[in-house]
Design a protein that fits this description.
Layout: H1 13-26, H2 49-56, H3 60-67, H4 76-85, H5 90-100, H6 106-109, H7 118-126, E1 132-135, E2 141-144, H8 146-152, H9 165-171, H10 173-178, H11 182-199, H12 204-216, H13 218-224, E3 234-241, E4 245-256, E5 259-268, H14 274-285
Antiparallel strand pairs: 1-2, 1-5, 3-4, 4-5
Helix pairs in contact: 2-3, 2-4, 4-5, 5-11, 8-14, 9-11, 12-13
Amino acid sequence: MDASALSPEPLDTRAELSEFLRTRRARLQPEDVGLPNFGRHRRVPGLRREELAQLAGVSVAYYTRLEQGNGRNVSGEVLDAIARALRLTDAEHSHLLHLAKPKAHKKKRGARPQRVRPALLQLVDAMDGVPAYVVGRRSDILGWNRMAAALFGDWGALPAEERNWARLCFLNPSSRELFVDWEQKAADMVSFLRMDAGCYPNDPLLSALVGELSVKSEEFRTLWARHDVREKGHGVKRMRHAVVGDLTLSYETLRLPDDHEQSLVTYHAEPGTESEAGLRLLASVGVGRGVVGSAPGAESWGAGPG
């Protein structure tokens, strides 16, 4: 099947809500939530609907309508109770609210151009020795410095539509070679896209991206079907770089206070480690160059110094 033939239809929020609740319910066992487990012959994985309804303090019929995708008239208090019963994380709780009560104004915002402030791009370019980049909706890479290009690859040599972390992760073999824990990187990437899908179900570029990856990557399809969600945060990544060898780097994701759809992501090594020496060597090699603002739907600001 040709991905280019896919029509970027909006994501069906009713179906998304139904599958999200079903998969969250399936991961819990009665003993996990203090309920008796009567026998081995349970027809469904995880909690039954009536057990979940009991925990949330709602009728089985009410919860069943919600799990069938009908969240139009459900109250915030009921959604909060269901989130507690399902033991949702903060990101999952937020995702549930987006799916059950989508806001009309997000239909228009989903495809608006992504603009990066020139001052922020100057800051990224000035971060010597620290790989840094700006990421926006749909995991589009909007701007980066020379150290990011040296660490992750020459993004400036790619067509604008390919400057996207999800595409790079699943469709570019070099990503599998770079990230030692590629499976975790892939799972995180899909979870981030799921959060975007809940916020912007009518974004045609996001729908097209999900469709393309679903066609081209069986691993993406499997992860997408899990309906896992999480916010970008902080942590540690292990990499195996072709030039400087093994690196263990901490990353920080800093969401911009005046534009929550964009984040500044930085990587650094613990002082005195071989990874710190590896980053210094990478900086001296000078592979790659910083380029900014030319992802799909982005506002171009030109190129950084080579």
